[in-house]
Design a protein that fits this description.
Layout (H helix, E strand, L loop, with lengths): L5 E4 L5 H14 L9 H10 L7 E7 L2 E13 L4 E11 L8 H15 L5 E2 L7 H9 L16
Parallel strand pairs: 4-5
Antiparallel strand pairs: 1-2, 2-3, 3-4
Helix pairs in contact: 1-2
Length: 153
């Protein structure tokens, strides 16, 4: 990596590389690979309207995307307020521990501020000690909950 990575909003031309990163992310978390057609679905969510449902930031250096973070506004019934939910934060192997993750987190935090939202929430697997140490180092506080998923088909 010859130049310091730049964090910026994703562009349509980044989608193929973002989808490749999502595949790497799924493999890292020992999850199923993304379903076919993900690039088109993401294009609609990210760029399909003047007010996108999903936001994506990428970290790039020398024209190569090294990592990404995605987020969207959500609602907390208990707080009666919106917050920014960070769905994904991932860096390619070999690019962790270099400040890129913190730069992506700053972009997500800045997006929350720009939207007038008071906080950011996310989750990480309980076994991901490196991510947990990183999140605690930047001042995040964990809340113990279990995530469930219920198919509607």
């Amino acid at each position: 990596m010859s130049r310091r990575p730049v964090v910026r909003p994703a562009r349509v031309g980044d989608l193929a590389e973002v989808v490749a990163l999502i595949g790497e992310h799924a493999a890292y978390e020992k999850a199923d690979p993304p379903a076919a057609g993900l690039e088109g679905r993401l294009e609609r969510l990210l760029f399909g309207s003047s007010e996108p449902r999903l936001r994506c930031f990428v970290a790039e250096s020398d024209g190569r995307v090294l990592g990404y973070a995605t987020c969207s506004a959500e609602v907390s019934t208990w707080d009666g307020a919106e917050y920014l939910h960070m769905d994904c934060l991932f860096l390619r192997d070999g690019h962790r521990g270099l400040g890129i993750g913190e730069a992506l987190m700053n972009a997500v935090r800045d997006e929350a501020r720009a939207l007038g939202l008071g906080h950011v929430e996310w989750q990480t697997p309980a076994w991901n000690d490196g991510a947990i140490r990183f999140y605690e180092r930047i001042g995040a506080v964990a809340k113990d909950k279990r995530r469930f998923s219920l198919p509607v088909d």
